[in-house]
């Protein structure tokens, strides 16, 4: 082979050999014929043609990964809040059965003016609307569930009905919020009927202030969420409340557990207690989320050896737990508190009956017997009256906990459940709080689904090696469609429908972001490809490249020579 | 079979307890049964049983039923569940028949079978996968590897033990993991399922170090619904742990676990054997039996009683030794001897720890062990990497009765049996083996052939072995070649083949007797795992060589040798050589000048 290596740069050979000054005895080979040069050129060109037109496309086809097209810009716009500015127009019906029509129209107008003056947060505003059929709307108030009500027609949800009634013997107007319906009763002295000429009647101001007060917490919460957690009025308390609450889910699993370090109590009237104390609340939550309930009894549940034991406090005559030690109260390693099977998060409610030797047990700082574990559940310390056990005189816990003694525990659990689900603390009416929760949840879901879209867009941009299956693309388009329908529902005041759309958007967004097949390729590094390709491409590629370069050099030289000869 | 058997006692006890579930609809019961076995072994059989009403089970109100397991079963629509974790081998020749007639034990590793409520096979399989995945997490076992290749649907080998209102919608699925190593991480979740959690009652004796040091152990979890003719249905969970401990081995302190030889003067030699010299000894088992106590064998004492156990069942510990044997027990417990002359039970005090101590004592009577109904042994025969054979030997020790049974084998797909090669050899009482056609012994066959990478072979044979005979069944198989990525990390160890399950049909009472053979190790042709890279390198080299040759022939110019020399001066190599020569000449010149 080496002897044949000599014919590099064949076109030049003839000319350079002639220029050789040394009269050599060596025989110089005859110059190559143009046919031979032509054949070599064709051979090399054929090889390269196969590589470029056959090999390369096949390699490209077989090793490329499928990346479905994603509307990156649109996704990023959602995440940046450019596409949608959520607004919350609340429709409030005003009924004034004791007033003349012009009077009541004037009242509504002036109250709306007063409200608009008071409102400082534009995205959340109240719209008053005069109705006459007061009785039917209030009657609907109880079981007119927000979602079903709005699904049937395109009219906005009625957030509140204000009923303005004249009452004798009053000096100033008085308001009364019914705890079980969405109705606010305003009683006013008949003397204060607004005169059409007055621009700012005291009754309107009163109603406006009442309404403003009713929605102040919700307004602050929504402002906090929309601003992305920026500091504002009450932002500290709102962020604490939001941090505690669970992420929104379709279904929550409620798990009630009785833990005790000894062998008693070993049974409780849990079925009756759940039925009696909890079912009404869960029923009211029906439009927002579903719930499953399971219960268990766990005996011999001791504290973790790491946890600081309770200390006996002489002055309180009780065993006390320090507030900072409460996080170590739950022995996560040994207590069987695994999440329930199925979609949705689990909320754990623990009823802890302390050992007779450590009873009663309270929290040291405030003598409280319950606390919330943020985003996880709640704990209640139940100290039942001890029983004298037989002849030995030692005290034991009762073997069975009755429904009546579970009452305080379940009242606390209901309260903890509301807090964990993120329900606002005001106003006093539960339906109003739930409606408020719907709006807060819709806003949260809208923002979180939008930001997931943004993250997905950034992820697919930054990792060029991950595949994007078609399912992700379809999920993304569903999410975007649902997001815009959420936005329009919000704008038109249909909050129930907005929540439904936002729920779908959030699920689809999560599904597209956590698509399993997208992560597979990330762990296949380029070094592996080199290791696989190099043994083949090295020995084949080098001669091909060298010959290509030589051929090009010859062509360039020939072209130059031709130009020189023409010049 | 006139000899009164421990195991039929256990079974009778179980039957009586099961048959009266109405009186205790949501009760809890636990019992420990101890029996010394020959060769200084001790059988400890723990049983825990909890009931809950079907209604509170459906509403997820769990008291004695563990919540985690209950939710899994509901989620997977599982109506009856049997889960087994086993290690070791039951030595039937020395220890007699199996505890619970084998109904509470599984093959080596993990075995799971369940009746799942589903509309069709596909749905049942999807739920089965849900079930195995969830159980895998709950019990820290690799049950998630029970895929379609390890799942079978036995037809005649298993019967539901619970009462199911509608049977036609139930699908039986069976899966085994013969290679699973059962250890303490499986015991901890097992204990968590118990209401008393190993903190009170007989479960306080469990110590992973002792339990998994046993010569044989089996943990089981059974769930089934029981519907008495009068009254509401209940859901029952039964957990058992059976183990055979070597007393000598267990008594060794953990700080000093190395066995020491018995001093010469304490050696008991079998004098009936001929000896050539005085320095040899055939050791003899002690006639007086070993001295042991719970503290020594289990490493701890029994801590009171689980207060949930029903009060009339206080006799939670029973011991089976002859009545003439001395047994010391700790204060507070009350001993009660049963009329059969061998069993005594103890009522424990709820507050004091309990210990049993049995001294060394020569006794006249021995607890007689019943002969097992059937001996079974299964081995892989043959040699080479391509073919092999399976040999299953059944021995019927009875002089009078035939044994009818069902042999259930689930073989992995990479073991391809040839059922037409099924051959039977029968050795009668005369000891002369003679070949018979397999159809003479096999009364029924259910065979579901394997599909590569999709499902394994399922073979169920109904067989009959005549009295005092030994039957040897053989069939050939072929070993498949696996794909490169189908080999486990320890491929050269071999592949586990699940034990065969034998269900004996003509048991004296209705309760079936189960025997499981040992699991087998199948060596498969195993490649060298650097092979893919070698192949890449080798083929690349060959292709590069061929390509280079062809390419050079096509492209290069052929000249004669002296012409090549002339051309060589022009090439890069030639120029470099020329430069080198020039440098050398210059250096040489300098040297000559210096001289």
From TrEMBL, chain A:
Compartmental location: Endoplasmic reticulum membrane
Chief place of localization: endoplasmic reticulum
CC per GO annotation: GPI-anchor transamidase complex
Region ranges (Disordered): 1-33
Keyword Endoplasmic reticulum applies: yes
Membrane-traversing stretches: 41-60
Coiled coil: none
Keywords: Endoplasmic reticulum, Glycoprotein, GPI-anchor biosynthesis, Membrane, Transmembrane, Transmembrane helix
Annotated membrane topology: Multi-pass membrane protein
Name the record gives this protein: GPI transamidase component PIG-S
Naturally occurring in which organism (per UniProt): Penicillium cataractarum
TrEMBL record, chain B:
InterPro entries the UniProt entry points to: PIG-T
GO BP term (any one): attachment of GPI anchor to protein
Keyword Signal among UniProt keywords: yes
Transmembrane segments: 533-555
Annotated keywords: Membrane, Signal, Transmembrane, Transmembrane helix
UniProt KW Ribosomal protein keyword: no
Top-level taxonomic group: Eukaryota
Span of the signal peptide: 1-24
CC terms in the record's Gene Ontology section: GPI-anchor transamidase complex
Protein name: Gpi16 subunit, GPI transamidase component
């Amino acid at each position: 082979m080496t002897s044949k290596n000599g014919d590099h740069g064949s076109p030049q050979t003839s000319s350079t050999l002639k220029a050789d000054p040394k009269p050599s005895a060596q025989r110089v080979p005859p110059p190559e014929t143009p046919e031979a040069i032509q054949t070599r050129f064709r051979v090399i060109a054929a090889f390269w043609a196969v590589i470029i037109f056959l090999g390369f496309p096949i390699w490209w086809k077989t090793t490329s990964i499928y990346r479905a097209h994603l509307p990156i810009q649109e996704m990023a716009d959602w995440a940046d809040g450019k596409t949608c500015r959520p607004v919350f127009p609340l429709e409030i019906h005003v009924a004034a059965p004791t007033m003349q029509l012009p009077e009541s129209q004037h009242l509504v107008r002036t109250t709306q003016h007063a409200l608009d003056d008071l409102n400082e947060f534009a995205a959340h505003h109240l719209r008053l609307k005069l109705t006459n059929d007061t009785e039917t709307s209030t009657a609907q108030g109880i079981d007119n569930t927000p979602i079903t009500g709005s699904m049937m027609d395109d009219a906005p949800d009625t957030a509140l009905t204000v009923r303005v009634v004249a009452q004798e013997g009053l000096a100033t107007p008085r308001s009364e919020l019914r705890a079980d319906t969405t109705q606010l009763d305003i009683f006013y002295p008949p003397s204060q009927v607004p005169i059409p000429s007055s621009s700012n009647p005291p009754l309107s101001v009163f109603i406006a202030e009442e309404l403003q007060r009713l929605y102040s917490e919700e307004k602050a919460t929504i402002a906090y969420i929309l601003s992305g957690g920026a500091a504002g009025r009450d932002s500290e308390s709102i962020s604490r409340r939001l941090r505690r609450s669970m992420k929104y889910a379709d279904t929550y699993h409620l798990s009630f557990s009785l833990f005790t370090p000894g062998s008693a109590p070993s049974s409780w009237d849990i079925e009756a207690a759940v039925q009696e104390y909890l079912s009404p609340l869960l029923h009211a939550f029906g439009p927002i989320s579903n719930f499953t309930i399971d219960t268990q009894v766990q005996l011999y549940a001791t504290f973790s050896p790491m946890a600081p034991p309770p200390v006996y406090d002489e002055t309180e005559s009780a065993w006390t737990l320090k507030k900072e030690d409460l996080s170590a109260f739950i022995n996560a390693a040994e207590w069987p508190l695994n999440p329930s099977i199925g979609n949705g998060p689990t909320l754990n409610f623990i009823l802890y009956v302390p050992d007779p030797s450590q009873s009663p047990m309270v929290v040291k700082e405030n003598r409280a017997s319950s606390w919330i574990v943020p985003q996880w559940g709640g704990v209640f310390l139940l100290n039942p009256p001890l029983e004298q056990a037989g002849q030995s005189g030692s005290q034991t816990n009762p073997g069975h906990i009755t429904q009546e003694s579970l009452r305080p525990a379940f009242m606390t659990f209901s309260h903890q459940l509301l807090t964990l689900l993120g329900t606002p603390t005001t106003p006093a009416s539960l339906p109003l709080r739930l409606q408020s929760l719907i709006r807060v949840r819709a806003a949260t879901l809208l923002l979180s689904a939008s930001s997931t879209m943004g993250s997905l867009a950034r992820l697919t941009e930054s990792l060029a090696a991950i595949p994007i299956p078609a399912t992700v693309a379809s999920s993304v388009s569903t999410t975007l469609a649902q997001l815009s329908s959420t936005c329009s529902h919000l704008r038109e005041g249909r909050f129930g429908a907005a929540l439904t759309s936002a729920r779908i958007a959030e699920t689809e967004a999560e599904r597209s972001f956590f698509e399993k097949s997208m992560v597979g390729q990330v762990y296949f590094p380029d070094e592996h490809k080199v290791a696989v390709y190099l043994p083949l491409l090295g020995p084949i590629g080098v001669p091909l490249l060298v010959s290509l370069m030589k051929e090009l050099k010859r062509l360039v030289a020939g072209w130059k020579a031709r130009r020189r000869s023409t010049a | 079979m006139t000899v009164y058997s421990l195991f039929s006692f256990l079974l009778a006890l179980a039957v009586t307890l099961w048959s009266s579930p109405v009186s205790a609809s949501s009760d809890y019961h636990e019992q420990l049964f101890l029996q010394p076995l020959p060769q200084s072994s001790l059988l400890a059989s723990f049983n825990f049983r909890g009931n809950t009403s079907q209604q509170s089970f459906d509403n997820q109100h769990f008291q004695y039923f563990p919540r985690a397991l209950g939710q899994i079963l509901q989620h997977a629509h599982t109506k009856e569940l049997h889960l087994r974790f086993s290690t070791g081998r039951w030595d039937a020749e020395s220890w007699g028949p199996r505890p619970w007639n084998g109904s509470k034990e599984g093959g080596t590793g993990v075995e799971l079978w369940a009746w799942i409520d589903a509309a069709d096979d596909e749905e049942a399989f999807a739920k089965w996968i849900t079930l195995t995945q969830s159980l895998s997490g709950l019990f820290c076992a690799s049950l998630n590897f029970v895929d379609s290749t390890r799942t079978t649907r036995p037809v005649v080998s298993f019967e539901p033990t619970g009462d199911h209102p509608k049977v036609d919608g139930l699908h039986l699925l069976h899966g085994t993991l013969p290679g699973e190593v059962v250890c303490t991480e499986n015991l901890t979740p097992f204990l968590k399922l118990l209401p008393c959690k190993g903190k009170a009652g007989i479960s306080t004796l469990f110590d992973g170090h002792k339990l998994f040091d046993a010569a044989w152990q089996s943990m089981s979890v059974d769930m089934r619904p029981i519907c008495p003719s009068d009254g509401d249905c209940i859901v029952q969970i039964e957990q058992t742990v059976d183990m055979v401990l070597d007393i000598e081995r267990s008594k060794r302190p953990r700080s000093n676990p190395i066995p020491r030889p018995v001093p010469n003067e304490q050696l008991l030699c079998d004098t009936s054997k001929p000896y050539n010299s005085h320095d040899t000894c055939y050791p003899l088992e002690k006639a007086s039996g070993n001295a042991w106590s719970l503290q020594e064998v289990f490493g701890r004492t029994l801590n009171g009683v689980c207060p949930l156990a029903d009060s009339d069942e206080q006799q939670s510990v029973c011991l089976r030794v002859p009545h003439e044997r001395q047994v010391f027990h700790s204060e507070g417990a009350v001993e009660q001897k049963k009329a059969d002359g061998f069993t005594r039970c103890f009522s424990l005090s709820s507050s004091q720890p309990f210990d049993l101590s049995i001294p060394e004592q020569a006794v006249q009577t021995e607890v007689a062990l019943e002969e097992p109904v059937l001996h079974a042994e299964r081995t892989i025969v043959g040699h080479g990497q391509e073919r092999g054979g399976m040999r299953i030997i059944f021995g019927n020790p009875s002089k009078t009765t035939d044994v009818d049974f069902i042999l259930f084998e689930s073989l992995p797909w990479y073991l391809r049996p040839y059922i037409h090669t099924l051959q039977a050899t029968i050795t009668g009482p005369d000891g002369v083996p003679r070949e018979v056609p397999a159809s003479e012994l096999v009364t029924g066959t259910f065979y579901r052939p394997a599909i590569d990478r999709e499902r394994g072979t399922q073979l169920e044979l109904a067989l009959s072995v005549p009295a005092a005979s030994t039957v040897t069944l053989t069939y050939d198989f072929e070993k498949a070649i696996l794909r490169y990525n189908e080999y486990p990390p320890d491929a050269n160890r071999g592949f586990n083949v699940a034990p065969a399950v034998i269900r004996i049909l003509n048991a004296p009472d209705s309760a079936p007797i189960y025997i499981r053979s040992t699991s087998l190790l199948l060596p498969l042709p195993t490649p060298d795992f650097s092979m893919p890279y070698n192949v890449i390198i080798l083929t690349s080299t060959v292709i590069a060589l061929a390509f280079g040759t062809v390419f050079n022939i096509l492209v290069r110019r052929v000249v004669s040798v002296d012409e090549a020399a002339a051309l060589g001066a022009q090439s890069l190599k030639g120029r470099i050589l020329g430069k080198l020569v020039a440098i050398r000449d210059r250096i040489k010149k300098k040297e000559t000048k210096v001289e």
